[in-house]
Specification:
Layout lengths: L1 H8 L8 E2 L3 H9 L4 E2 L11 E4 L6 H10 L3 E4 L7 H14 L3 E3 L7 H9 L6 E9 L18 H17 L3 E9 L10 E8 L4 E7 L8 H5 L13 E5 L2 E5 L4 E3 L13 E3 L9 H13 L8 E2 H20 L3 E2 L11
Parallel strand pairs: 1-2, 3-4, 4-5, 6-9
Antiparallel strand pairs: 5-14, 6-10, 7-8, 7-15, 8-9, 10-11, 11-12, 12-13
Helix pairs in contact: 3-4, 4-9, 6-9
InterPro entries: Gfo/Idh/MocA-like_OxRdtase_N, Gfo/Idh/MocA_Oxidoreductases, GFO_IDH_MocA-like_dom, NAD(P)-bd_dom_sf
Organism: Ruegeria pomeroyi
Pfam family, one: GFO_IDH_MocA
C-alpha cells in the first residue's frame, strides 16, 4: 500500500490498477477509489510498468507475467526467493529489452548518495560496523509466509543492508554468519551476527535482529518509515586510513594536525550536512518513471545489483546453516535461505 500511496502522489505516475486476488481486500480497495482487479489480464492496456510487491516466493511468476505484457518492472526486494529464480527473471527482462529494477529504496535518500561521496575523504577503507535491531511486534509473525523461507530478518531486512553497503562501499566476496532462532523459536532465524569481506580487502561486521529492542537501525535513524519510532541514532560506523564516518548523520572524524594520523593525536569531528527529508519510495518511483521516459539513472538498484545483494544474503543464511564462511559463487541456485 505504500507503493500505491506514492504512485497516487507522484505527478509522473498514473495508477492504472491494483491487482488483488483476495475478493474482500479487492472490494475494500475499490471502495477507497482505486481500480482493483483480480488478475493481470484485467489491467488496462495502456499500462507501461508494474510494481511487484507480492510475497517473495511469488516474485518470479508475477514478474515474468508482467514482462510478458511488455511492462517495465520494479520488483520489491529481494529479487526472488532463490538465485535460480532471480536469474530467470533478469534473463527474461534482458531478452525483452525491458527495465528491471529491485526495490532497494534506501539508495534514493540524499544522505545515502552523499555518504558514498564522503567515503573518498577518509582514505582507504579499513572496515565497518553496523547494528540493526528492532523488535517487531508479535502479531507481525501471524502471517504464515513471514514464518517461512524468504522471510525473517535475514531475507527481509539484511537484504536491504547488504545492498546499501554495496552501494556505499562496493562488492562483497565472502560472509561468515552465526544465526539464532532462540528468541522467537521459528524456522527462520530472528538474530544473526555476520562478518563480511569486501572485494578491496576491507572487512565488516553486522548484528541484525528483529527480536532485540534498540534505538539502532536505518529506519529509526532517518524516520523514513512512519510505522517505526524515531531515535536519530547512527547505526553504521565506517573507518579508513585517514578518518571515519558515521551513518546516516555523515558525522566525519579526520585530521586535526599535520603529520601522520595516528592514535596519539585526537581526531577532529565535523558534523554532517543536513538534508531535506524525502520519501524514498516516492523518489524511487519518480526515478523509475523518468527512466521510462529515457532518463539515465545511477541510483536505482538494477536487476544485476539486486541479484548480487540476494546472493550475499543467501550466502549469509547458508553460512549460518553450515557453520563456515561462504563465498557468493558457492550459493546453490535452488537455495531459499532455510
Amino acid at each position: 500500500m505504500r507503493h500505491v500511496e506514492v504512485a497516487r502522489r507522484s505527478p509522473q505516475i498514473r495508477l492504472t490498477a491494483v491487482v488483488e486476488p483476495v475478493e474482500t481486500r479487492r472490494r475494500a480497495l475499490a471502495e477507497s477509489g482505486l481500480v482493483a482487479v483480480a488478475t493481470l489480464e484485467e489491467v488496462p492496456r495502456e499500462t507501461r510498468a508494474a510494481i511487484v510487491a507480492t510475497p517473495t516466493p511469488d516474485h518470479l511468476a508475477t514478474g515474468l507475467a508482467a514482462l510478458s505484457r511488455g511492462w517495465a518492472v520494479l520488483v520489491e526486494k529481494p529479487t526472488a526467493g532463490t538465485m535460480d529464480d532471480a536469474r530467470v527473471l533478469l534473463g527474461a527482462a534482458d531478452r525483452a529489452g525491458l527495465p528491471l529494477y529491485v526495490g532497494h529504496h534506501r539508495r534514493c535518500h540524499p544522505f545515502s548518495r552523499a555518504a558514498r561521496e564522503a567515503l573518498g575523504g577518509i582514505g582507504d577503507l579499513v572496515g565497518l560496523q553496523g547494528l540493526w535491531s528492532l523488535r517487531k511486534h508479535d502479531s507481525y509473525y501471524a502471517e504464515d509466509w513471514r514464518r517461512q523461507a524468504g522471510a525473517g530478518p535475514l531475507m527481509t531486512n539484511l537484504s536491504h543492508e547488504i545492498d546499501l553497503l554495496r552501494f556505499l562501499v562496493g562488492d562483497m566476496v565472502e560472509v561468515s554468519a552465526l544465526t539464532s532462532s532462540a528468541r522467537r523459536g521459528l524456522v527462520v532465524p530472528d538474530t544473526a551476527a555476520l562478518a563480511f569481506r569486501f572485494a578491496d580487502g576491507a572487512l565488516g561486521s553486522f548484528l541484525i535482529s528483529d527480536a532485540g529492542a534498540s534505538p539502532w537501525s536505518f529506519e529509526a535513524a532517518c524516520a523514513e518509515n512512519p510505522a517505526i519510532a524515531v531515535s536519530g541514532q547512527d547505526y553504521i560506523r565506517i573507518t579508513g586510513t585517514a578518518g571515519a564516518l558515521e551513518f546516516p548523520s555523515l558525522t566525519r572524524w579526520g585530521r586535526s594536525a599535520p603529520g601522520e594520523i595516528e592514535w596519539s593525536k585526537p581526531l577532529a569531528r565535523a558534523a554532517g550536512a543536513g538534508f531535506a527529508r524525502v520519501d524514498p519510495l516516492l523518489e524511487q518511483i519518480n526515478r523509475f518513471a523518468a527512466v521510462l521516459e529515457g532518463a539515465q539513472d545511477d541510483v536505482l538498484c538494477t536487476g544485476t545489483d539486486g541479484n548480487a545483494a540476494l546472493e550475499m544474503t543467501l550466502a549469509a543464511a547458508l553460512s549460518g546453516k553450515l557453520g563456515r564462511p561462504v563465498r557468493a559463487h558457492e550459493v546453490p541456485g535452488d537455495y531459499s535461505g532455510i
